[in-house]
Design brief:
Length: 331
Amino acid sequence: MKVAVVGATGMVGEQMRKILAERRFPVSEFFAVASDASEGLPVLFRGKEYKAMTLQQAVDAQPDLALFSAGGDVSKEWAPRFAAVGCTVIDNSSAWRMDPEIPLIVPEVNGAVVRSSDKIIANPNCSTIQLVMVLNALHKQWPIQRVIVSTYQSITGTGMRAVQQLADERQGIEGPKIYPHTIDLNCIPQCDVFLENGYTKEEMKLTHETVKILGDPSVKVSATAVRVPVQGGHSESVNIEFVQEVPTPEEVKACLAQSPGIAVIDNPSKSEYPMPLQAQNKDEVFVGRIRKDVSSPKSIQLWIVSDNLRKGAATNAIQIAETLLAAGFLK
């Protein structure tokens, strides 16, 4: 089929190109789409060089599938234009996630809710994806009532300018800054802008998106999102409070080990637990440090790590496309 990657020159766009090739997605024609300023730039896909085209040129080419990773403003304006020519859009921005008419999909969790009529599908926030993978597996067996999550988010979640800021700081170079503070040797307890309730936009994404994906408004989520100077992926410390029955750590491990897309690494006596460097360039959601909460008889504490550019963005988007393909919604 004809496939467009919108934002093809960005970090997530690069991963989308790579993963389309790795997973052998059936691409007969490929369109690398970028801003007007990047028109004509060379873009590699499956060893072949393509020239970046504009959004309008891509719409005129009428692709069957468009993978968007170009920011919310671009998605709001252009996703409907692609959909209007019969293209299915899978959007990685936050533009459509909380629209009640747009499905917000993690295939292992709620892939079955997608309909053939859905022409715009939202890809969740990177931190949300790895969180709901674990919560969903547990919630199906032991209903959850409350989740407290603290994230340790890679600079790659902010894009190339953040990676450059960290590199500049480590080399003592005064360069452009995307963060309000130095990120090297530091932790910044701010991801995105602050809202009136004192939480950041990123933190509220975790709250609202988790409920929408799980399809259960009784699950309450409170988040603190922190940017840390690492590149391998996002980490999360998660406290899960159950409604009544509380699984043992052994039961949690067994449940998660059997869940698609999840890998358990949990052997503290040998210092074996998930870390961002292990998760980098992998598609699994890694879980470890599974233990009882000593302060609450109804809670379990655990640690989640995943590559935010892959399962947290590009891989999940392509898995959505594979779900549509398997259901006969893409041809």
